[in-house]
Design goal:
By secondary structure, the protein is an alpha+beta fold. Helices cover 37% and strands 32% of the residues.
Length: 103
C-alpha cells in the first residue's frame, strides 16, 4: 500500500489512475470522458483495479492489440508496463472528484 501527502487530506492512501484522470482530480483538466477500470496483474495472484479514461484505453488497444473492454487478460509484463504509466493521486481526492462527476 502506497501513501501520499495530500495538501487537503494529509497522509492518504493512493489511487493509481490514468494521466488524464490525475489531471482532472488535481483540477488541471476538465474534459475527461468515460472512465473504465483496467485490471492489472503485477504479481502472481495479485490484481489491482485502476480507473482509466477512454483515450488511455484506446491507446492500450492500439499499442498492445487488446480489447479495451477486457483489459483483465493481460500478461504480467504488459500489466507492469501499463502500471508504470499510471499516476498517483490521493484516494480521498479521487473519491470526492468521482462523487462530483455523478451529481
Amino acid at each position: 500500500m502506497a501513501l501520499i501527502i495530500c495538501d487537503k487530506h494529509g497522509e492518504s492512501v493512493v489511487s493509481y489512475v490514468s494521466p488524464a484522470i490525475a489531471d482532472a482530480v488535481n483540477g488541471v483538466r476538465h474534459d475527461v470522458d468515460h472512465i473504465a477500470d483496467v485490471r492489472l496483474q503485477v504479481t502472481e495472484g495479485a490484481v489491482g483495479v485502476h480507473p482509466i479514461d477512454s483515450e488511455f484505453a484506446s491507446r492500450l488497444q492500439r499499442e498492445f492489440g487488446i480489447d479495451p473492454n477486457d483489459l483483465s487478460a493481460l500478461p504480467e509484463e504488459q500489466s507492469f508496463e501499463i502500471l508504470c504509466e499510471l499516476k498517483l493521486v490521493c484516494a480521498m481526492c479521487f473519491n470526492e472528484w468521482t462523487q462530483r462527476r455523478t451529481r
